[in-house]
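Data availability (excerpt). The following record was deposited with the supplementary files.
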Amino acid sequence: MEKRKFKVLDKQYLVPFILITSCFAFWGFANDITNPMVKAFSKIFLMSTVQGSLVQVAFYGGYFAMAFPAAMFIRKYTYKSGILVGLGLYATGALLFIPASAIGLYAPFLIAYFILTCGLSFLETSANPYILSMGAEETSTQRLNFAQSFNPIGSITGMYIAKTFIQARLNAMDTAERALLGPEEFEAVKMSDLQILSSPYIIIGIVIIAMLVLIAMVKMPKNADKNHSIDLMPTIRRIFSIPRYREGVVAQFFYVGAQIMCWTFIIHYGTRYFMSQGMGEQEAEVLSQQYNTVAMAIFIVSRFISTALMRYVRPGRLLMFFAIAGFALVAGVILSTGIMGMYFLVGVSACMSLMFPTIYGIALKGLGEDAKFGAAGLIMAILGGSVMPPLQSLIIEQGTIFSMPAENISFIIPLICFVVIALFGFRTRTFAH
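Predicted structure:
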């Protein structure tokens, strides 16, 4: 009997698919324009790095706090309603940079970030399972990988905007020089820098409002399920009793941790190496940032390639192969002290490219009406991105371990993450289909 072939996307879903896929780029943009702001706020307000890192706490806090409320909202209403609420919160948070910059205090910016990422949590909890539902379940993971391919395009745009229109335009005075300014001079410099920092967020807020109006006007496919009752705890117990889902949440937690560690510490690793070759610190940081951009470009290309490969290789098996390759490259980072370590670290991005959407698609497969709550659990697993990097930082602060640079040794944590992901990929062979 001939095996039936399923389309990745039917024509009836084309316009909704394009609109929802564009949202993937928007939250990628928000993530990567925000990462450099830790250093920017620390400099503008003369704060410690720990105080500056409250930006990330507010950012991940919004994701974590809103995932299950978003799932309950979507269960009661529709995916489209969830996306509209997400876009509304995103725009509100971005536009709150207007009063925050006028007030000139740090706390209003943290509130703005929290509201913005509550919107991102709504968007991700809605958009990922919505894409999965736009066609045959057999091609759902391939469809989500393709949609997710536009997320890093938004990310690299956010990195470019942060570097070109914020970091390059902030007052060139360093922290020590700012500390010597009189109260009036310091206030003038601070308010000028806050206006520069806020401008891109205000513009993206206006763009998001336009996107909200467009999606509201377009007819979108409705939820297939008719059950709108919210039985939170019974549903959570039910979905976490399923090995495919339970192990998928764990794998996603470790994947996000690995991604944030590998991308964040490209700068640390590169700066240490290039300074050891005689470069100044600023020059070394700039060159390392260029390697970071190359890593993101490789990530984008590899995601399109891996999506195509899924036509021939089962997603779980492909995930396992990529995780094993990631393990090998990270092992190379640990064992190499020269430029090869940097090449290995950049190459890891090619292996990470398919992981988030593939784990997501495998974990939600067969959940049916429970997919909305399942999606929330997988979005909450993003918390791995805030839990693991501080652990790696603690290792890096040791300077040297066993006569080796601590930056290298610290990659033992991403190494463990790839082991967990590879095991999940291997385990997909035993899950009930």
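Summary of structural features: Residues 8-230 form a domain with the Growth Hormone; Chain: A; fold (CATH 1.20.1250.20).
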